Amino acid sequence: MTGIDVDTNLGGQPDSPAAEYAEPFHPAFVNDQAAAWMGVELVRAKFGDVVIRMRLRDEMLNGFGMAQGGMIFAFADVAFALACNDPHGDGSTITVASGVDVNFMNPGFSGRQLTATATLVNQTGRSGLYDIRVTQESGSGEEVLAEFRGRSRTVPNPAAKKH
Fold first, then answer.
1. Most buried one in 75, 109, 110, 120, CB count within 10 A?
2. In angstroms, rounded to a whole number, what is the distance separating the alpha carbons of residues 116 and 23?
């Protein structure tokens, strides 16, 4: 239980037909050059509930022909950042990572589609806890590639002070 009741669905009410077809949007995603380089696709973007996808490419592999752990971490971190920042916020604050733990469970391979699902576990004041599960398509369906747990902190937006 998060203790938060926030409707950030861009398509209207959560159960409305329009909500099902709303194009996902997040202002933090628009200028995320790292996510763009990785080829990240935004599937769902609500406060505390984000789904993204990307396809692993050869330049994301390590010397063993498997996904570089840092690439998987960066992919999960994109989902984390989007989940802990309200897409409808006023921009006066941002929520950043205060710490993370990641456990790698299976190797990732070039050409496979990865999905990261970020979920808010708990929010207390300016601190939050998020779980991000990274899965990949495989011959037998979907397998867990990594589990990422992120701790967040909401702080004043330094960019907002420049305006």
1. 75
2. 18
Q: What's the chain's Rg over C-alpha atoms?
A: 16
pLDDT value of position 140: 85
**Rounded CA gap, 94 and 114, in Å?**
26
pTM comes to: 0.84
Of 17, 15, 33, 25, the C-alpha closest to 50 is: 25
* Helix intervals (H) in 39-157: 69-83
Q: pLDDT digits over 60-80, tens only?
A: 999 999 999 999 999 999 999
Measured CA to CA, the distance from residue 93 to residue 62 in angstroms comes to: 36
Question: Which residues contact residue 64 at a Cβ distance below 8 angstroms, ignoring those fewer than 6 apart?
Answer: none
Q: What are 149's strand-pairing partners?
A: 101, 131
Which residue segments constitute the domains of the chain, with CATH numbers given? 17-162 (3.10.129.10)
Q: Compute how many other C-beta atoms are within 10 angstroms of the C-beta atom of residue 33.
A: 7
160 with 138: CB under 8 angstroms? no
Question: Is the pLDDT assigned to residue 12 strictly greater than 90?
Answer: no
